[in-house]
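Journal club prep, shared notes

We agreed each person brings one worked example of a sequence with its structure written out as tokens. Mine is GNAT family N-acetyltransferase. I'm keeping it raw so we can talk through how to read the token line rather than staring at a rendered picture. Sequence first:
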Amino acid sequence: MTRRERMGVQIRNATKDDVSIFIDWARQEGWNPGIHDGECHYAVDPAGWFLAEEDGEITGTLVVTNYDSSFSFGGFYIIREDARGRGVGWKLWNHGMCHAGERNFGGDGVFEMQNKYAGNAGLIYAYRNIRWQGIAEGCEQQDLVPVQDIPLDALSAYDSLHFPGERRKFVEKWISRDETQALAFLQPDESIGGYGVIRRCFEGYKIGPIFADTPDIANCLLDGLTGSIPGEVFYFDTPEPNAAAVTMACERNMDEVFGTARMYSRYVPELPLQEIFGVTSFELG
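Then the structure, token by token:
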């Protein structure tokens, strides 16, 4: 027997110093994560970051973030190419699902893996997400304010209306990183009518999320966010069932470049998809 056959696959928790491995592997896969995505996600649930190792070499990555007591989201699920087909991924997956426990688990999988996730892992298909690429041509919007001017509790409460779990800690970090801009639209009564974030990635910028009460507010947010990066390449991830969001991308002559299947383990949450114009992150929700 070889040493690899004797040792088998070992799963361990990733440390904060390991986070760069997840980001680098995602980058190599062409997923183009944000430059600060790792630190934002890791802070939410450090115990949910896992590495598969064989003979001391890393052969797989997976993150399962428990946002609250009822919802978990997974991502950064990558098996090194030369280690695929040996059961590494299945062992890593099962380890992650133990961390999720009884929570409803969500994830965005590439289209070609959709049937495998449904058949092997029992995940339920909900809808498609589409990634669009374009050139920023927005401009400053007088109706928008920096989210830092809004109490975090209020912003988190609005976010929770559009996400299956409570993620205050994540939102706090997501809106405050360098090379990130976050804007909100306030109604006449000072209540939040929408908010959006744009962040630098390894290639260009990504919008995410854009949650808004109406398409007009969403358009205002998209123009305001892209107005901060004139002429730059940016990406916008829209749930396909939100026809108004797809129209926003098409009207800006954006090209469809990628997509995912949103899937869940127990049930499809009842979310106001007509108010979800931009997905926060394919990696972790």
